Amino acid sequence: MAQRSTADGLMQSTAEAETLGRASEHKESHESNASDDVKIDAVEILGDWLSQMELTDEKYLRAAPAFRVVECGGRILKQKSRADFAHSTAVKQINKFISHSWQASARSKYMALLVFYNGKAAVVMGFLVAAATMIFFMFDFLPGFMSYAEGGPERKYLGPWCISLGTLMFLLILLFRRPRDLIFLDRLCINQYDEREKSLGVLSLGACLKHSKKIMILWDETFCHRLWCIFELAAFLKTHENTELLAQPLDLTDFLVWKFILNTLVYGGGLVVPYSTNLSDNMFPVLIFIFATCAQCWLVTRIFVCFSQGSEAIQKQLSGFTFAGAQCYCCCANHQTPDGKDIPCDRRVMQQCIQHWFGSVEEFEKVVQTRAKDAFKKHLGGHFCPFWWLAASEIPVLWQQMDVAASRLYERDAHGAIGRIVLGLSVQLLTGPTVFATIILLLRWKPCRGLPLKLLAMALCLCLVFGIHTLFRALFQSLGELSGSLIFAGSFLLPTIILWHVSAYKS
Ligand SMILES: [Zn+2]
């Protein structure tokens, strides 16, 4: 459970709470011949209760609609409020149990949930709006201006409508759609302002996991080190033999979101800042273009480095997972409150549960190292970045080319329009993933480290971007937009498939 302080506090408060009484009754039913003079060990009772995965009361199986977490800019992930608990209700089953570490960035978790719940709808709606806009521009319902049309040989009548309205619709859906999926989030489903209720809620955690259809792990580097996160993972693995784990690594969402923002700025800028490839004709815009491309490649390199480090960390942490590596507040505080009272040890409680469920801690470690890792890979793919998520982050290039296609349709040049759509799709689905796979391979190969590696990756990124631009311009000039784009797409198909396959993690 993610509310570490809650959980650690629980061990303190349960000592007096009715909870312990209930847990101890439960234990006595198992060990009726326990000697009276043996002092009941609170840790053993708690461990025994938690490992049975039973509810302390039916009302503690709770869930709330997912929009409660993403409304108001993800306020609930940043600060708690007395009103939070009232948003959840008692349910018979939970759709998704949200497992996360409170040490991870609240902004990243908010973004991860937005992308998970609203990302697909935002991309589809953005695309539909861009397509409708293209038709409107074709029939002259929207104004335009004379521009070089993204490096075209001559000025054309053009408007940046698909990319701007597509992006606007994308953002509106991403930020304001209200997903109603029933989720368990500790802050919503455990009363944080009543110690007794809080303890009973925490003791029902195992049951909540047992009654959850899926678990969604908001993964960051601290996840594997938080004892309660490990407990949640263990309880879910124990009760769901063949269920997929949903993992949303926070580094991945940050990467995709930044990539989308950069793409929107770069491709939108490519439309509104007119430039020509002819230096003598148009020196100033060419310099802007070169500067913008270098800045873009530097930023792209930075987000690539963060993503690559993050995905390597997932790989390493899952492969080398140990229970001993997890930390908890009680052990760090030497099992004493600031005013000198004893705190029972969470680690011992968890260990008891894990031994009960998996036979031994070593067996559990093996399950995480194999089953959890495989489940992550199944959900995220060998790159820890699904192909379609990457393609979605490249959609601004398609919207930009839809604007150029609208300009061609305005001139009743259907071949040019189809050529531009094919070019947009080729960059989104082929050259984008090619650049991704190549840079990821370089970063994983690590011919050097630190700044030199970043500069090398940036140089590679620049070469690829300029190479791709030069290739499609040459093809367009010699073959025309339709044939040129088809040859362009055809020439990248095989290299993209090979590079995508080669750059995936194999083990
Ligand atoms: Zn401890």
From TrEMBL:
<keyword id="KW-0812">Transmembrane</keyword>
<feature type="region of interest" description="Disordered">
    <location>
        <begin position="1"/>
        <end position="35"/>
    </location>
</feature>
<feature type="transmembrane region" description="Helical">
    <location>
        <begin position="110"/>
        <end position="138"/>
    </location>
</feature>
<protein>
    <submittedName>
        <fullName>Uncharacterized protein</fullName>
    </submittedName>
</protein>
<feature type="transmembrane region" description="Helical">
    <location>
        <begin position="158"/>
        <end position="176"/>
    </location>
</feature>
<feature type="compositionally biased region" description="Basic and acidic residues">
    <location>
        <begin position="23"/>
        <end position="35"/>
    </location>
</feature>
<feature type="transmembrane region" description="Helical">
    <location>
        <begin position="283"/>
        <end position="307"/>
    </location>
</feature>
<feature type="transmembrane region" description="Helical">
    <location>
        <begin position="482"/>
        <end position="502"/>
    </location>
</feature>
<keyword id="KW-0472">Membrane</keyword>
<keyword id="KW-1133">Transmembrane helix</keyword>
<feature type="transmembrane region" description="Helical">
    <location>
        <begin position="380"/>
        <end position="399"/>
    </location>
</feature>
<feature type="transmembrane region" description="Helical">
    <location>
        <begin position="419"/>
        <end position="443"/>
    </location>
</feature>
<feature type="transmembrane region" description="Helical">
    <location>
        <begin position="455"/>
        <end position="476"/>
    </location>
</feature>
<feature type="transmembrane region" description="Helical">
    <location>
        <begin position="256"/>
        <end position="277"/>
    </location>
</feature>
<feature type="compositionally biased region" description="Polar residues">
    <location>
        <begin position="1"/>
        <end position="16"/>
    </location>
</feature>
